[in-house]
Design goal:
The chain is of the alpha/beta class. It is 31% helix and 24% strand. Helix 1 crosses helix 4. The protein starts with a strand and ends in a 5-residue tail after the last helix.
Length: 155
């Protein structure tokens, strides 16, 4: 299964840590949505979208990227990290996937170290995350997605 994961990861790199853990399961192309490049997602069997939670939702850059580059009907999955609360998580991404007729294979989330805004004054929250357990759970999620896809189950 040829897979790309399009992501935005800043501050402490929590989301990228999770994606690098997932990529240990199989060759996976990680595409940073902030790079100025032309992206062709048609050649992938499925596409993941990943972000930290910013203002209770996926970073708008990931949403805009998916809106521009996600092919109609392409199976997708979502990955996100959050400090205090999941917020609406991948809700905007799932809505976009529905608009494009893309089956959603699943979503994975875990806590990530957060020092944004007022959290900086207390040294941050979710310290130590993502941790080894979070990364193993992410790898398990990715293995399951790949197994389901290989078995022909796409939603």
């Amino acid at each position: 299964m040829k897979t790309a994961i399009c992501y935005y990861s800043r501050h402490h790199g929590n989301t990228l840590k999770v994606l690098e853990g997932m990529a240990q399961e199989a060759e996976t192309d990680l595409i940073d949505v902030t790079t100025r490049q032309t992206v062709r997602l048609e050649g992938y069997d499925c596409v993941g979208f990943a972000s930290g939670i910013y203002g209770f939702a996926f970073h708008q850059g990931v949403v805009n990227f998916a809106r521009q580059y996600l092919p109609e009907g392409k199976p997708v999955f979502f990955v996100y990290t959050y400090g205090g609360a999941k917020g609406t998580g991948a809700k905007a991404m799932a809505a976009l996937a529905r608009e494009k007729g893309c089956p959603v294979l699943g979503e994975f989330s875990c806590k990530g170290y957060d020092t944004f805004g007022p959290f900086q004054w207390i040294g941050g929250i979710a310290k130590g995350h993502p941790d080894a357990r979070d990364l193993e759970n992410a790898r398990r999620f990715y293995r399951e997605i790949r197994e389901r896809f290989a078995g022909g189950i796409q939603s």
